[in-house]
Design goal:
- The protein is α/β, with parallel strands linked by helices.
- It folds into three domains: about 5-205, 3-Layer(aba) Sandwich (Rossmann fold), CATH 3.40.50.300; about 215-375, P-loop containing nucleotide triphosphate hydrolases (Rossmann fold, 3-Layer(aba) Sandwich); about 380-430, no CATH class.
- It is built from 17 helices and 15 strands.
- The protein has helices at about 10-20, 25-40, 50-65, 80-95, 110-115, 130-135, 155-160, 160-170, 190-195, 225-235, 250-260, 275-285, 300, 320-330, 350-355, 380-400, 410-430; strands spanning about 40-45, 75, 100-105, 125, 145-150, 175-180, 200-205, 215-220, 245, 265-270, 295, 310-315, 340-345, 365-370, 370-375.
- The strands form two sheets. The protein has an eight-stranded mixed sheet, with helices on both faces.
- α12 links the parallel β10 and β11 (about 295).
- The radius of gyration is 28 Å and the shape is elongated.
- The relative contact order is 0.10.
Length: about 425
């Protein structure tokens, strides 16, 4: 199908898709929608920004029997924000219909969640722990739901949620249709998949947006001065529509946000220490464009759709380089240009080199007096050291130990070697090889 109008969807669904402004399915949607419509279990490997959420939401809505009061589909996401985001998109698709849905997320009142289930939703979206809790306490009857979606499965595994999913999935029908979406499929996840999926279709939309397409990658050295001071210089030199500043831990995110506020910069926060109410309020304020800057952690921000990100700043380089790709992939979307800025310290050279091997074309730059300037090649010092090591070896080989040694021969030879090295280094500088 080359257009959404080519699918035989119900009129309400066609109208909802049109209202969303979707004309042509993305590659992942083109592959997954027919499989969900046919009930063929599948594993979809695709990265953020490929349209994978609607690849399963649209066909699930199309398959719901409005006359049945039974639960028909369960959709899991590893974080509250992701689950809420999916639920919001689901509501846009079911607006004006009798299709009932509910969102079940951790950190909210259990009694209220249980009361919500009395309306007998046909679709449930939520975090694995809360869904399992409701199923174990017989508030949610998952045995009637033939469809199970696990979104961001690799993250769910990393966060320890696979056991929760296993517990309620084992209560679901034997002929369960499972749709698993993940950027990567970790080896340790495969036994779980094999338990529930027999010969699933495997869709891999391998190509992310080209790393070089629309993104300028600045690599900014941080030496003697504090990293926070360098960040402030960077922030003073840019005029973002919206900038996300990434740290590796919740504490660092909160500490950095406070430091920026003390410097007079208004910042939003996305990290795991916010209460559910605070997180909901924060996401609303971010979408209402109250902030130019957001400080975030990877797990809290993964998969959340924040439109209009013009700058991504890596205040800390992640240990898992896949997160680096997720971070920079948040800018330069929808044909716009973006700027990805990475602060690095001398002891992070190995990380930087590993990122370059992924295809990231760093430009070694710095901010001086409010202006961006390209600085000397990062490897210059190392190259110079290698050249000097070579001169040392040449000098030792050229100034040989005399066959007949005399008193003070060691001092004399050392002086000769040093003179030789000085002459050679002078020659190199003269020829411009620094």
């Amino acid at each position: 199908m080359s257009k959404f109008t080519d699918y035989q969807f119900q009129p309400f669904l066609r109208n909802a898709i049109q209202k969303l402004g979707f004309e042509r399915p993305t590659p992942i949607q083109k592959e997954v929608i027919p499989l969900v419509l046919k009930g063929v279990s599948a594993i979809g490997q695709a990265h953020t920004g490929t349209g994978k959420s609607h690849s399963f939401l649209i066909p699930i809505v199309a398959r719901i029997n409005e006359e049945s009061n039974d639960l028909q589909a369960v959709i899991t996401a590893p974080t509250r924000e992701l689950a809420t985001q999916l639920y919001d998109e689901l509501l846009k698709l079911t607006e004006g219909t009798e299709i009932r849905s509910a969102v079940l997320i951790g950190g909210t009142d259990k009694e209220r969640a249980a009361n919500r289930l009395k309306a007998k939703p046909q679709i449930v979206v939520g975090t694995p722990g809360r869904i399992n809790d409701m199923a174990q306490n017989n508030y949610l009857f998952v045995h009637t739901a033939k469809i199970l979606v696990i979104d961001e499965a690799d993250l769910a595994f990393d966060m320890g949620f696979i056991e929760d999913i296993d517990q309620f999935a084992s209560r679901m029908p034997e002929q369960l249709e499972m749709f698993v979406f993940s950027a990567t499929i970790p080896e340790k996840l495969k036994p779980f998949l094999n338990k529930y999926m027999e010969s699933p279709a495997h869709i891999k939309i391998g190509k992310r947006q080209s790393f070089t397409e629309g993104i300028h990658y600045s690599l900014v050295p941080v030496r003697s001065q504090q990293k926070e001071k360098k960040l402030l210089q960077v922030l003073e030199s840019i005029t973002p529509y919206l900038a996300i500043i990434f740290t590796n831990t919740r504490k660092n995110a909160e500490d950095l946000a406070k430091h920026l506020e003390e410097a007079g910069i208004k910042v939003g926060r996305i990290h795991g220490d916010l209460s559910p109410r605070e997180r909901t309020r924060m996401m609303r304020r971010i979408r209402d464009l109250e902030y130019e800057y957001i400080v975030a952690t990877d797990l809290a921000a993964r998969g959340i759709d924040i439109p209009g990100v013009s700058h991504v700043i890596n205040f800390e380089i992640p240990d898992d380089l896949e997160f680096f790709i997720h971070r920079v992939g948040r800018t330069a979307r929808a044909g716009l240009e973006g700027h990805a800025i990475t602060l690095y310290e001398p002891n992070e050279e190995e990380k930087v080199e590993a990122i370059e091997k992924l295809g990231i074309p760093f430009v070694h730059e710095d901010v001086r007096k409010g202006e961006w300037v390209e600085v000397k090649e990062r490897h210059a010092r190392k190259k110079r050291a290698n050249q000097y090591d070579e001169i040392d070896r040449e000098a030792a080989a050229f100034i040989r130990k005399p066959k007949k040694v005399k008193p003070n021969y060691k001092k004399k030879r050392a002086r000769q070697i040093e003179n030789y090295k000085k002459q050679e280094r002078r020659k190199q500088r003269k020829h411009g090889r620094r």
